[in-house]
Each structure stands twice: as C-alpha cells, then as structure tokens.
Design brief:
By secondary structure, the chain is of the alpha+beta class. It folds into seven domains: 2-181, no CATH class; 187-253, no CATH class; 257-333, no CATH class; 340-409 and 419-455, no CATH class; 460-585, Glucose Oxidase, domain 1 (3-Layer(bba) Sandwich); 601-806, Dna Ligase, domain 1, CATH 3.30.1490; 808-938, 2-Layer Sandwich (D-amino Acid Aminotransferase, Chain A, domain 1). It is 44% helix and 14% strand. The strands form six sheets. Strands 5-12-11-7-8-9-10-6 form an eight-stranded mixed beta sheet. It has a six-stranded antiparallel beta sheet with strand order 21-20-19-18-24-25. It is globular and about 85 Å long. The model is unreliable at 1-20 and 586-590 (pLDDT under 50). It catalyses: pyruvate + ATP + H2O = phosphoenolpyruvate + AMP + phosphate + 2 H(+). InterPro entries: ATP_grasp_subdomain_1, PEP_synth, PPDK_AMP/ATP-bd. Its cofactor is Mg(2+). Pathway: Carbohydrate biosynthesis; gluconeogenesis.
C-alpha cells in the first residue's frame, strides 16, 4: 500500500512538473547545449535495461529470459525531457527509446525526425556536438538496436501509400540518417571533416570549397600535398584530422559496386523494377563511359520513383529506396567525370541530371513533366539563340526548384536551432551540396556562360563565380553600401540608402535602394510590386552567389538591372562618369507624386453598402479597394462577396475629436507635426533628425488612435450593416477589415501592402479594435517612410475600410494582365498559394506565364510548407502542405484566362476610363468556384523602363541566330 501511495505521489509530481514547464528562451537552450558538450554523459543521465514487460532494470541486472530480450540504452536527463515538453526540442534522440509515430511527428511538420537529422549533422561538424564527451559514454546507444528499430520504423512507414506519395522527398532523405542497413553517410562525413579543418586552419579553405562544390578523386592527392606543404605549420591534431579526411575521401571515391545493386533488392526479383535493376547491374561492364553511366543510372533512378507505389510490400519498398540512394551516389560521383565536348552533350547531361534530381525527390514528378519538353529536344542539328535561352531558363528553374525543395522542408527547424546553435545554419547548404542538384547547377552554369557569350548578355557582378545564375527581376539602378544578409532577415533594420542581398526579403520591407534575393518569393508579391513600381533594382541569385558576395559586405557599390535582366554590381571606384552622373544631387521633390485631395468628400458619415460605390468613388468617398470591388460586384455579381464600406468621412469625424493629453484634436496633432517638421528642415536640421522626430510623434498618435472611443452612432450603423448586408449580427460573421487609403493605386505609386489588413475577425470587440488598428496603420514607420519618400503631401492620407465576409478559399493569389517575365502586354502572369492570402506576402508561390498564343509556362512551383485557413470561429490556423500536386488545375487556368479577357474588355468601358495599362487582380478558388477580392491598376516605373542608361547596358540580342549543337565548349 505504501508503495502504491508513493507511486501516485511521484505520478502527481511528474504531472505537476509537466504542467508547470515553461518554454525556454534560446539563450537558455544555448546554456544547456554548452553544458552537455562538457558533460561526460552528454544529454544522458544513466543507462538502463528496458524489458519487454515494461520494467526498467539497472545495467548489471539484464532482463530475465522468461520476460524476453530487452534493450539497453541511456535515459535522458530530466531537463532534456522537460525541454522536449516545453519547446518541442529533442536533444540526443535515441531511436530505440522513441515511439515511431512520435518520431514521424505529423502534427509538428515532422519536427522530431528533422531534428534527428540535424543532430547528426551537428555531431559531424562539431566533434560530437552535445556528445563531445558523451560520445564515449559506453552503452548509451547500441548501434544494433538502432538498426533494428530503423528497419521496423520503415516497415511501419512504408506501408502507407499516402506518405510515400506526399512526402517522398523527406522519407528518402531520412534514409540517409536513420540506421537501417549498416551504411554511413560518407559524403556528409567528408564535407564535415573538411569544414572542421578549414575552420581550424584557414589556408585549407580553398580545398574545402573544392571538396564541397566539385568533389573529384584528384582532390585526394591535393589534400595529401597540402599536408606535406604545410607540415611545418600544422598542429598535430589538425594533421591527424587531415589523415582522417584522406581516409574518408578514399572511401567516398571508391567505385560503387554496380553488380551488387541487384543483391540489395532481392524481394523485387521478377518484378518490372527488379528486372530493371538486375539489367542495369548485369550491364555494368558495358557502362564504360561516365556519359552512359549518368544516363542509365538517372533513368533507373527516375523509374524507381515512378514505379515505387506499384510495389506494395514495405520491405521491398525499403530495398528499392536503398537502391535509389546508391544510384544517386553513382550519378553524383560520375557527373564530374562526364565532361561534355559539345553543346549537344551538355544539353544531354542537363536533361538526365534533371531526371536524377526528380528521381531523388528534389523535384515533384508533375514539375518535371512541365520542364521536360524544354530539356529533351537536344537530338537536332541546331537551335536558335532564343530556343537555347528558353532551355537555359527551364534548366535554371530545375536548379532553383530543387534547392527550394530542401529549404522548404528544413528551413523552419533550422531557424529554430540557429537561435541557440549557429552551426545549424550550414545544414541546408550541406544537404544541397550532397545532392545531384549540385552537379545540375554546375552544368546549367556552363550552359549559361556559353549563351551569355553568344548573346553578349553577360552579368558583371564583382568577381563572383557562376554569374549565369544571377538574373534581373526589376530594372533600375542604385548606389550605396552593400549589405549581405546570409541568415534570417526578420530582425534586420534596413536603410533607404543601402543595397541588400537577402536569402529571403522580409514581407514588411521598408524602403531600400536596391535588393537581390535567393528566394525571390514571387513576382507579384507586395515587395516585388513596390520594387517594380518605384524603379528599385531587384535581382534573383543563387545561394552560392550570396556566399561569394559576403566578402563585399559594407562596400559601396553601383548596382543596375537592365530592361532585359542583365545585372551589374561594381565597386564605387570603378563607376564611369555616366554612372556617377546618375546620382548627382538633384531636387528629389520634383520626382515625388502628389496625392489628389481636391475631390475628397469628408461629409459622408454613413457606413455604406459596397453595392452603392463604384470606380468613380475612388479617392472621393473611399479608397480604390472598396470602389473597385463595388464596381466588380456590378460586373460579376456571383463572383464577388457582399461588403460594407467605412468611408473617409467617418475616419475624419473621429480624428476631429479632442485628443487625450494634447491640446486640440487628433487631426490637429497630425497637422502640427508636419508643420513642425517643415520648420525644422527650413532651420537646417538634418533629414534624419526630422524623420526621427516625426516617427516619435506618429508613435504617440498611433497609440492614441488605438485607444480612441468609437462614436455610438457609428457602431449602431455598423451593427445594422452587418444584419442587412452581411446577413448576420456583428460578432457572428467572420470578416476581413482591409485598409483602403487614398494614397493607393495612383498613376505613379501603388502603395501595395503598406497598410493593415485584419484577417478573419469574428468577435465584436476585436472587430471594433481592428477598425482603430487599421486607421492607425498608415502612421506606422514602414508605411510613413514609403509615403514620405515618394509623396509630396504625405499628410493628406485618409484611410477608409472595406469590410468583407471571409471566404476560406482552397487557394488564392494574384493575376497580372501582362506577361511580366515576357514583357508582353497580351500575356498573363499568375501567382497562387494554398489557402487564404496567397502570393501577396512574398510566399514561394506557384507561378505561371499564361500565353496569349495558347498554352502556359510554369515559372515556379509552390514551395511553402504552411498555408492559412480561416476557421468560422475567427483568426488564422496554419496547415502544412505537400507539393506532389499542383495548386492550379487546368480548368482554373482556363477560367483565369477568360476572366482576364473580360476584365480587359469591360472594365475600361464600364468605368469610362482611358486607362490602357495592365490590371492587378486578387482572387481565389473555393471548391473550384472563382472569387474576386480586388482589382487595381498594375503600376510600373516608366522612368526605370525607359532610362537611357538602362537601355545602354541592354544588349541587342539576335534571338534568331542559329547555333550548331556540335559547337565545341
């Protein structure tokens, strides 16, 4: 009885500890990590026997025979267990100690599995990482038990068709790390050992770069020679590490035993795939050239992926996937030896490496089907320069999409770990460099260099290698300090006179002089539209390019993107007189735009039915969002939701109320601030000081607006509007509150995404608070800085609010009635993401060029692991996505094409407008029904597009020029 009561006490104590577990800050986790590095037991507290009956016994008291064989391994320290519960961070995971479903961790986007992989990487680059001393803790982990667990795990996992179909990439990647067949990841070990040496001894950096970017067997002699040359300077421990690296390199470069492949998949004997593997193995003596080996291995790699689901036995699937890994190794090792002699061979190599990348899971099969027609037509005598340029674009896309697959799967967990362990930042790069994508990228680079020479469309970006992977997105030019941001951009404070190179730009980017990004997001995100509108040069580049530019961080540079997309970045001392003249001091005010306020109506103090407004009311009663959506409601009544409009007049009426703790009204406070700013400028105070003063005052105003009492008459009108127009009580209908100012969609300024949208709000109090938040949003630092930089009268900004019911769309995005990438007015550009709010905030969206001549080109697949859903209870929930199916279906693309045709024909007529430009349309699909949410003019920077200088750096290209595919490289 006493023992029972004691057990209950400990159970309650444990539950209490779990409930009280507080999430640790990253710096606290760092302390734990450093503590374990110096602990002889690492993250473990002791070793125990775990018996099949659930009992746990001391190490010297094994499980008795009558119970059955148990397993022996370490137990985690209590604080390690607590960290898993509080932060979902699992250190030093022992597989034999882990439930299979817990490791697969569906609810957390497979976080535990990814952490296991990341842990293995960190151990390889940091001498055991948290097990630096604990790796010698004998008996903590039993390799044979881990192997047995791994086999059982894959029997369980691979029995599920849906998992193989949806998560092929992740499943296959996990096989490289979870023990199940006795193999080690020798390639990763080689890269890790070379990294450790270069970190400790800088002169080894060039060899490390070679081993990481283009590993060849000849590197072994180079390393041996390096050790000999540096023998007098090398510390003994580094010399030993070099010896270990040489051993690993010899193991890595040892030829794969092709004949043994058939023995790896005995269960598949007699099946179509089994026969293919046996045939490939039997012909090993005939595969006497790297070209044949790459071709045949890539084809089989692709065939295994395509036919894997036809094999229903989990163990047979496991054997096929292991063969697949060996085939990727064959392609990886053979690719550097396959040296194309002419253009035809190079196109052949790119095609088959694309198949290998798809077979390895870095591209989805439907994505390869979109690319393949452009990459398989190499068996002809010649092609035009235009045709070859399109091949380059398709091949470059394969490289970018494959790298994005790795980032999409692992980026979130890497970000979490980088916060407490900076070494985790190298994990994604290591994954990419260990894949066949590496060699595909190098071959595409060779093609790009050749086409650049033929077209004279060469980039000139400092002295970085492989410049063919750099491509301009928006034309423009800039001069300023270069800032290279290698990691997260979330906490970067940007400056309007600097040029930024990002892994991925922040969605709330403040004004900058120029940007270049590895993950461009999509061409129609708010950041991209602002850059295009304002003539800010913007380019996409590879991660390798970004790393190469890091040494120029802090350098003052000239940056230009031409109308055809070639890019120049050069140091200040190399600028020509013409380039210097572009930045001669001039009156900036002449370049600014004035917000028209002559026709604004502030006398309208009623909440309006959206049906009562149309395009003619834009800038008068309300902003263009509400006015244009009201117009669309008239044109497409079944494709547009009902809506309410809170006009400018209601905002101004509230702003004319006395402002607490100030003399005068809210509006007088704002007016006085601008008057004082002008007085300060006239008295010689610097623009920075004046801007800081304005931002401080706006912070006061913003806080006051958020606390403002709403007028009873306004709230009553709002409640009536919800009942009469939206069909339910205020507090029961989920709605979007969209800021809609008179500064948006001007002829020369888009203002896209600068102000607040409240997503899917239901609660009455939250909606009323949200209205004040939206009113306050034009006075945020970001919105103010963009306006201040480009508008002559930023004080005359009035927000209205569009209130529309939420539509929980399956996917949503943006249509531009112009081909942005093609530059053709008759084409269409479309970007869509899963869920609500798609494509506008810089997501890696699915993008298409829909051609006027018929057909379309996939510009990029979606690469976002999470998307927004809108529950009826309000707020936003995140769901995880997989990429094995496209977002837009064929019928959706046809409907978008028809919609664009109707918009082009009807909108100018029905609005009596002389506008002849393209339109920017936000839309979504719910159960294949199209919904329209916004239409606005698509504003481009005519100055940048027509700049004499930009035209001068844009080569005239003869796209009809014929090039023989027998051309020597």
């Amino acid at each position: 009885m006493k023992r029972f009561i004691l057990g209950i006490f400990y159970l309650l104590l444990t539950l209490s500890c779990v409930l009280q577990a507080q999430k640790l800050e990253p710096k606290e986790v760092t302390v734990l990590v450093n503590k374990y590095k110096n602990d002889i037991r690492g993250p473990y507290k002791d070793i125990r026997w775990f018996c099949t009956d659930g009992s746990i016994r001391p190490p010297k008291d094994p499980c008795p025979d009558n119970i059955g064989t148990g397993v022996q391994h370490a137990r985690y320290k209590d604080e390690v267990v607590a960290l898993g519960k509080s932060n979902h961070i699992f250190l030093g995971q022992i597989l034999a100690y882990t439930d299979m479903e817990s490791l697969w961790d569906v609810e957390n986007d497979h976080s535990r599995l990814k952490q296991y992989q990341l842990d293995k990487y960190l151990r390889s680059v940091d001498n055991g990482w948290i097990n630096q001393k604990g790796q010698f803790y004998r008996g903590a982990i039993q390799s044979e038990d881990e192997q047995a667990w791994g086999i059982e795990f894959y029997k369980w996992l691979l029995a599920k068709d849906e998992i193989l179909r949806n998560e092929y990439f992740l499943v296959r990647q996990s096989l490289k790390d979870i023990p199940h067949n006795g193999d080690d990841n020798v390639a990763q070990k080689m890269r890790s050992e070379s990294k450790v040496i270069s970190d400790l001894y800088l002169p080894f950096m060039d060899l490390r770069t070679k081993i990481h970017s283009q590993p060849e067997e000849s590197d072994i002699q180079k390393v041996i020679k390096f050790k000999k040359t540096h023998s007098s300077k090398l510390p003994a421990d580094i010399a030993l590490k070099i010896d270990a690296l040489v051993t690993t390199m010899k193991e890595f470069h040892k030829p794969v035993d092709i004949f043994a492949l058939a023995q790896m998949a005995p269960l598949t004997k007699g099946t179509p795939l089994g026969n293919s593997i046996s045939g490939f193995a039997a012909s090993s003596s005939e595969l006497n050239s790297p070209k044949l080996l790459v071709e045949q291995a890539s084809q089989l790699l692709y065939d295994i992926r395509e036919g894997l689901l036809e094999e229903e036995r989990p163990m047979a699937r496991l054997q096929l996937l292991d063969v697949s890994l060996k085939l990727e190794e064959i392609v990886f090792k053979s690719s550097p030896e396959y040296q194309p002699q002419n253009l035809k061979d190079l196109l052949h190599k790119i095609c088959y490496l694309g198949m290998a990348v798809t077979g390895s899971g870095y591209l989805e099969q439907w994505e390869w089907n979109q690319l393949a027609p452009g990459l398989t037509n190499y068996d002809v005598p010649e092609q035009s320069l235009g045709e070859l340029t399109e091949v380059l674009n398709r091949a470059r896309a394969a490289v970018e999409w494959s790298a994005a697959m790795t980032k999409a799967n692992y980026d979130a967990i890497v970000k979490q770990y980088v916060a407490f362990e900076p070494l985790a930042a190298g994990f994604i790069d290591d994954k990419i460099r260990g894949s066949v994508s590496l060699h595909l990228g190098q071959s595409v680079g060779e093609l790009g260099n050749m086409i650049s020479m033929e077209s004279q469309l060469a980039n000139k970006v400092m002295d970085v290698q492989n410049q063919s992977t750099i491509r301009g997105l928006n034309p423009g030019y800039a001069f300023g300090e270069l800032v290279v941001v290698g990691g997260s951009s979330d906490d970067i404070e940007v400056s309007s006179d600097k040029i930024y190179v990002f892994q991925r730009p922040p969605s709330d980017l403040k004004p900058v002089a120029g940007i270049a990004t590895v993950a461009e997001g999509n061409m129609v995100s708010h950041v991209q539209l602002l850059a295009r509108n304002l003539g800010i040069p913007n380019a996409a580049l590879s991660d390798e390019n970004l790393q190469a530019l890091k040494k120029y961080d802090g350098t003052r540079v000239f940056y230009a993107v031409s109308n055809k997309g070639n890019v120049i970045i050069k140091p200040e001392n190399q600028m020509s007189q013409e380039e210097l003249a572009l930045f001669a001091i001039k009156e900036r005010r002449e370049e600014r735009i004035e917000v028209p306020v002559g026709q604004i109506r502030l006398d309208e103090n009623n909440v309006l039915n959206m049906r009562s407004v149309d395009a003619d009311d834009s800038g008068k009663l309300c902003g263009p969002k509400a006015a244009n959506l009201g117009q669309l409601k008239k044109m497409f009544p079944d494709k547009v939701v009902e809506g309410l409009v809170i006009p400018f007049g209601i905002f101004r009426t509230h702003m004319d109320q006395p402002m607490p703790d100030q003399e005068g009204s809210y509006w007088q406070f704002l007016t006085n601030m601008f008057q004082e700013a002008n007085r300060m400028l006239d008295s010689g105070i610097t623009e920075n000081e004046v801007e800081n003063y304005q931002l401080r005052q706006l912070e006061i105003l913003r806080a006051a607006i958020k606390k403002m009492e709403l007028l009873d008459s306004f709230v009553d009108q709002l409640e009536n509007g919800f009942k009469e127009v939206l069909g339910g009580d205020l507090g029961n209908v989920p709605v979007f509150l969209r800021s809609d100012t008179n500064m948006e969609d001007l002829k020369e300024f888009t203002g896209a995404g600068l102000n607040l949208t409240i997503f899917n709000s239901v609660d009455k109090a939250k909606i009323l608070e949200g209205i004040k938040d939206v009113w306050a949003s034009p006075y945020t630092e970001r919105s103010f800085k963009w306006r201040q930089k480009y508008l002559l009268n930023p004080e005359n900004v009035y927000p209205s609010i569009l209130v529309i019911p939420s539509v929980d769309v399956d996917y949503s995005g943006v249509l531009i009635t112009k081909g942005i990438s093609s530059g053709t007015d008759k084409d269409l550009t479309v970007a869509f993401s899963r869920g609500a709010g798609g494509a506008v905030d810089g997501q890696a969206a699915e993008q298409y060029l829909i051609k006027d001549s018929g057909g379309y080109t996939l510009l990029a697949p979606a690469r976002e692991r999470f998307y927004n859903v809108l529950p009826v209870t309000g707020g936003i929930e995140k769901k995880s996505a997989t990429f094995q199916e496209r977002v837009l279906k064929e019928r959706n693309i046809k409907e978008i094409r028809d919609l664009a045709r109707t918009i082009r024909e009807r909108v100018p007529k029905e609005t009596n407008s002389d506008y002849e430009g393209a339109f920017d349309v936000e839309l979504g699909f719910k159960d294949d029904k199209l919904w329209l949410f916004q239409i606005r003019p698509f504003v481009e920077n005519k100055k940048a597009l027509g700049s004499t200088y930009l035209e001068s750096i844009t080569p005239k290209i003869d796209l009809e020029k014929r090039i023989s595919l027998s051309k020597k490289l």
